[in-house]
């Protein structure tokens, strides 16, 4: 059978292609030369399957899509507190290049606007790196997200540097508040090189899938950043990633996202997939017109809104039956799927409602593919309490997702 997914992508690109509104960015002259008809879309699943349609192998500069990834590197390299002390997490409701900082502290409001991203660039890598070493850390880190070595488009970079007055003004303000502690022009140059890294739509889908996959690149298997960092980055993407269009985006599309002025757009849906689109014509917010349209379609056609989540607990108990008879009878409770709090609560209720009369009870986890920490602790508590009630409890756990509990006599 031929997979329907590439066909769906091709069909959706065809539906959106007639929208020729907007225009390529021209404040960086080199970007104005982009072919406005380019159009591509890709899905990268968290298990590494990748689908694409249209111009998915054309390179363009990553621009602001680099911001969440550089933020992830800063958080991973420096820790949360030093980064949060310098860059906030509040939506600004303003344009990406607004010259505005938090009153008093001079802290940029968030890492997705230029003020925050310029600061974040300065925080990548361990303390003490020089500008070249820090840029190398950013290039290496973004390459690890993509799973291939990325390079800078020197002509786009030079073109942006010739017109970087606004970013230089922002950086000088940051320096005056002590948020930046070094030469503003050097930091802006590093940030501009970061924005000038060349990527394809397929690269961006894999980078987004690395976020969706809790920080592990699904193709290379490399852990690029720790899980708590990914949670922070996705949260900020969902509130600030689309600048002054963030509220419309959150309600209508509902996928943590980030756009770039070269026409790229990414979305990362935790546990499912990374999505990327490419089309250079931009709307008034600096977001790709056809990219926004494609994400609207993907979200509604595929039910991808992050707030639309299936009931987590309902199907966790696969069966509850007695095997054997007489004194050998065993109460078997078969579980399945992924278990989090609501699923574990459902298992607690199953066991308490059943009130097993059999001496032997088995919890069968053969069909369970994941369990988070709270789910694990709650299942172990069920085992402990059943044991204390005098049952012999067996865990059927061939994949070893639960550690074997120890019930010490003192805990009785
Ligand atoms: O700072 C700039 O102006 C660019 N290098 C990046 C801006 C950008 O991509 C904004 N996003 N839509």
Automatic annotation (TrEMBL):
Keywords: Acetylation, Hydrolase. It is an enzyme of class 3 (hydrolase). It comes from Mycolicibacterium vaccae ATCC 25954. Its EC number is 3.5.1.2. Substrate binds at residues 64, 114, 160, 167, 191, 243, 261. Homotetramer. The gene is glsA. This is Glutaminase. SUPFAM superfamilies: beta-lactamase/transpeptidase-like, SpoIIaa-like.
């Amino acid at each position: 059978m031929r997979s329907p997914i590439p066909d769906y992508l091709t069909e959706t690109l065809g539906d959106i292609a007639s929208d020729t509104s907007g225009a390529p960015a021209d404040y960086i002259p080199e970007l104005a030369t982009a072919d406005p008809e380019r159009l591509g879309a890709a899905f990268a699943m968290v298990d590494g399957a990748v689908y694409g349609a249209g111009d998915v192998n054309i390179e363009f500069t990553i621009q602001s899509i680099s911001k969440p990834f550089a933020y992830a590197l800063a958080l991973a390299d420096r820790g949360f507190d030093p980064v949060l002390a310098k860059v906030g997490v509040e939506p600004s409701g303003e344009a990406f290049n607004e010259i505005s900082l938090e009153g008093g502290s001079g802290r940029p409001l968030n890492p997705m606007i230029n003020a925050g991203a310029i600061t974040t660039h300065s925080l990548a890598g361990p303390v003490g790196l020089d500008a070249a070493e820090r840029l190398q850390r950013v290039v290496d880190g973004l390459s690890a997200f993509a799973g291939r070595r990325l390079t800078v488009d020197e002509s786009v970079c030079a073109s942006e540097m010739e017109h970087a007055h606004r970013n230089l003004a922002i950086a000088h303000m940051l320096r005056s508040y002590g948020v930046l502690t070094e030469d503003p022009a050097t930091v802006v140059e590093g940030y501009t090189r970061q924005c000038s890294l060349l990527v394809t739509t397929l690269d961006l889908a894999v980078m987004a899938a690395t976020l969706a996959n809790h920080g592990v690149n699904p193709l290379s298997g490399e852990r690029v950043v720790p899980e708590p960092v990914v949670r922070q980055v996705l949260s900020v993407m969902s509130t600030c990633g689309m600048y002054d269009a963030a509220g419309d985006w959150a309600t209508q599309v509902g996928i943590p996202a980030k756009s770039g002025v070269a026409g790229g757009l990414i979305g990362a849906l935790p546990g499912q997939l990374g999505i990327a689109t490419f089309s250079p014509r931009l709307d008034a917010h600096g977001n790709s017109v056809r990219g926004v349209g494609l994400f609207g379609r993907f979200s509604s056609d595929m039910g991808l809104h992050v707030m639309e989540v299936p009931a987590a607990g309902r199907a966790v108990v696969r069966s509850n039956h007695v095997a054997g008879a007489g004194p050998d009878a065993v109460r078997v409770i078969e579980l399945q799927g992924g278990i989090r709090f609501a699923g574990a609560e459902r298992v607690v209720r199953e066991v308490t409602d059943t009130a097993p009369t059999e001496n032997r009870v088995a919890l069968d986890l053969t069909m369970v593919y994941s369990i988070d920490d709270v789910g694990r602790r709650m299942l172990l508590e069920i085992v402990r309490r059943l044991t204390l009630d005098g049952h012999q409890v067996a865990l059927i756990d061939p994949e070893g997702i639960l550690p074997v509990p120890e019930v010490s006599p003192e805990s009785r």
